[in-house]
Amino acid sequence: MASQLKIFGINNLLILIMQKAFFVFAALAVYFGFTSTIIAQTASALASADASAIIVTPIAISKMADLKFGNIASGTVEGIVVMSIDDVRSGEGGVTLISAGNESNAASFAITGTPDATFTIDLPQSIFVYIDGDKMEVNEFVSNLGEASMLNNEGLANLKVGATLNVNASQTPGLYEGLFDVTVAYN
Known about the structure:
Elements (H helix, E strand, L loop, with lengths): L1 H41 L17 E6 L5 E13 L5 E10 L8 E6 L5 E5 L3 E6 L2 E10 L4 E3 L5 E12 L15 E4 L1
Antiparallel strand pairs: 1-4, 2-3, 2-9, 4-9, 5-8, 5-10, 6-7, 7-9
């Protein structure tokens, strides 16, 4: 029986060593398995993107024709002359439109820039035209394109500007002149 206890003790000892080895091996497997998972969770990724910008053609405006109200005779009462964007002038009140030697038309401008771009148009509220200290007011400026428009697919637009000339009673005869600005800007 002593030999059976010896064998039984060695077998238990071997089983005990095998169980401990298994637990150590299992613990190592679990440890390295979690470590791999933890490393995978903290890994990073990298992506790149291009940065770019396109500088477009600046918007530009150039005068093609001046605003001309034409030949006018003033009367004993004030009146107005309206120059339409269609180059048609009309008079009201104390003015007579004279056709002899007359040159009258709306102002005309060529606008260039980036094809299909939209832009705004800024016209003056009013200006004055002068001769030797005498003056007349020009107001109610209008354009064929409104307050905003769009360049065509070639980057072009034609702008016509009309207005109203306020003629005083018995206005001094002569050529009255003044400047006005038209501003266009991308929007």
